[in-house]
Specification:
10 strands; five-stranded antiparallel β-sheet
């Protein structure tokens, strides 16, 4: 999986974010988080208001639990637009696909959206994300 993902966590969190070269869905190499207190992997994509985007990622956990993919919009002033768009699922040790589709509104504050910040996260414990794709529909 593309290793150009950043990560975010609150200072008091003990979550660990790495590129796991041993584990992967279609080939070795995936994003792994050992979540303790929150945080997420994140990456920004340029977008245009009025257009529809779809993101997919495959995720698994060491034991069953929640994983999430979310979009947060950002405008030219780098201000976060609300509400975020989120999709989540309970997954286990297999690699189910998680998908999120969103049309960026072309009215109100979202009309100035320039970036979608994609976040990958989940409940406490170990989880892996792989084979991420983002397309304009």
């Amino acid at each position: 999986m593309d290793t150009v993902w950043g990560s975010w966590k609150r200072p008091e969190c003990k979550s660990d974010f790495v590129c796991d070269q041993q584990v992967g869905r279609s080939s070795p190499g995936s994003l792994k988080v050992q979540a303790q207190g929150g945080g997420c992997f994140l990456k920004s994509f340029p977008v245009q208001p009025g257009r529809t985007y779809r993101a997919t990622v495959y995720a698994k956990r060491d034991v069953g639990g929640l994983v999430k993919i979310a979009f947060q919009g950002k405008n030219d002033a780098n201000k976060v637009l609300v509400p975020p768009q989120t999709a989540g699922a309970e997954v286990g040790t297999q690699w189910p696909e998680l998908a999120l589709r969103f049309t960026v509104p072309n009215t109100g504050p979202w009309a100035k959206c320039r970036l979608l910040l994609v976040t990958l996260s989940g409940a406490e414990g170990a989880m892996w994300f792989d084979d991420f794709a983002m397309v304009e529909e």
